[in-house]
Amino acid sequence: MATVQPIYATLAGRLRRDIVNGTVAAGAYLPSEATLVRQQGVSRGTVRAAIAELVAEGLVVSRNGRGHQVRQFARLTWRASDRERNDASATPSDAWSRSVRAQGHEPSEKITAEIAFADERVASWLRLKPGEPVSVRRRLRFVDEEPYSIADSYYPRSIVAGTEVELPGDVQPGIYAVFERLGRPWTRTVDTWISRSPTREESAILAIPRGISVAEVARRSFDPEGTPVRLTLFILPGDRHEIEYEHRE
């Protein structure tokens, strides 16, 4: 027997569809509660419950005295092929942050560090045995104080134990410089892309609306001997990213 959806959920679905397909544009306001009651033939309580669901999803925000506005994210270009070198003139100073500033926005990052044991997936990417220790640097990236993406990096602890890699915060002049000092500079990088639905945790952290997919990018960097020395997993919501690569012939 089919489950009957509550009326408020049906209305939320209609509004969500109009937002996702652009009928109600980012930055625009939803019709007033009175207008929705009249248009949809439902009670004010139903309208409020439907809008509350969209607010909880991060799809709309409440503006005191003005109604409910469709949340808008600037769709920024990430030049994924840019060389990863820091510029100490600003913090954060990585290539992504410089690109965000060049597009007229302000980047920031929350960086934490921890020691963990490689699960099967991470171990496979880094050619380790499951359970081997790895140093993890987790970055939650913000644009204009809004959460924008996740970038978590994993390093074999057999290489980086006791180095700045295991410290939280921005590392100057950069993680690449630590590897150069260790005699293990990365000389080749391979990106693998997967398009998928966000996990519940990712949706909550990044305020990803229903119906929006993410690009998961696994970036592996290799030393001159061909050994993987870094794995970065990027989670990029599709409503706020354009990815650009440049290839020289």
Strand content: 25-35%
Mean pLDDT: 91
Q: What's the CATH C level of the largest domain?
A: Alpha Beta
Q: Which of globular, elongated, flat, extended, rod-shaped describes the shape?
A: elongated
Give your account of this protein's structure.
β1 and β2 form a beta hairpin. The chain is α+β, with helices and mostly antiparallel strands. The strands form three sheets. Strands 4-5-6-9-8-7 form a six-stranded antiparallel beta sheet. A two-stranded antiparallel ribbon has the order 1-2. The chain is built from eight helices and ten strands. It has two domains: 7-70, Winged helix-like DNA-binding domain superfamily/Winged helix DNA-binding domain (Arc Repressor Mutant, subunit A, Orthogonal Bundle); 76-244, Chorismate lyase-like (Chorismate lyase).
List its salient traits:
249 residues, alpha+beta, Arc Repressor Mutant, subunit A, Chorismate lyase, six-stranded antiparallel β-sheet, two-stranded antiparallel ribbon, 8 helices, 28% helix, 31% strand
Could you outline the blueprint of secondary structure elements for this entry?
Blueprint: H1 7-20, H2 33-40, H3 44-57, E1 60-63, E2 67-70, E3 76-79, H4 95-102, E4 107-117, H5 120-126, E5 133-143, E6 146-156, H6 157-160, H7 175-181, E7 188-196, H8 200-206, E8 214-222, E9 228-237, E10 241-244
Parallel strand pairs: 3-10
Antiparallel strand pairs: 1-2, 4-5, 5-6, 6-9, 7-8, 8-9
Helix pairs in contact: 1-3, 2-3
Brief summary:
Helix content is 28%, strand content 31%.
